[in-house]
Amino acid sequence: MNRLTAFFIATLMALSASLAHARDLGPAESRKLQDAGTIQSFEKLNATALAKHPGATLTDTELEEKYGKFIYQVELRDTQGIEWDMELDAVTGKVLKNHQDT
Q: Which residue in 62, 30, 36, 68 sits closest to 49, CA to CA?
């Protein structure tokens, strides 16, 4: 294998690893992003999720930086006891995923 091929393969591997990287953000970093106006408040994001499932209860939330975007993950339990997994764009509030937990 010549040097150019080896360099190309190493670059591709590094790029693939960085694209697949998801990082959980802790409370301090999350609050900093909210205070700076970079992401929407958790109250607003929670309200968006609950509007899709009226009467549901939030069971877990998490903020991640994934693929260069801030993703707010929400787990809910609806009034029939069905669990839902949702992902929202934390910057825009747009619902990206809304599916029943299996």
A: 62
The label of the residue with tokens 């877990």 reads 60
DSSP-assigned states of every residue in the chain: --HHHHHHHHHHHHHHHHHS-EEEPPHHHHHHHHHTTSS--HHHHHHHHHHHSTT-EEEEEEEEEETTEEEEEEEEE-TTS-EEEEEEETTT--EEEEEE--
pLDDT in tens, 45-85: 999 999 999 999 999 999 999 888 999 999 999 999 999 99
Backbone angles phi, psi at 87, to 5 degrees: -130, 135
As beta bridge partners, residue 54 has none
DSSP bridge pairs for 97 = 87
Q: What is the pTM of this model?
A: 0.76
Assess contact for 45 and 74: CB atoms under 8 A.
Answer: yes
d(CA 81, CA 98): 16
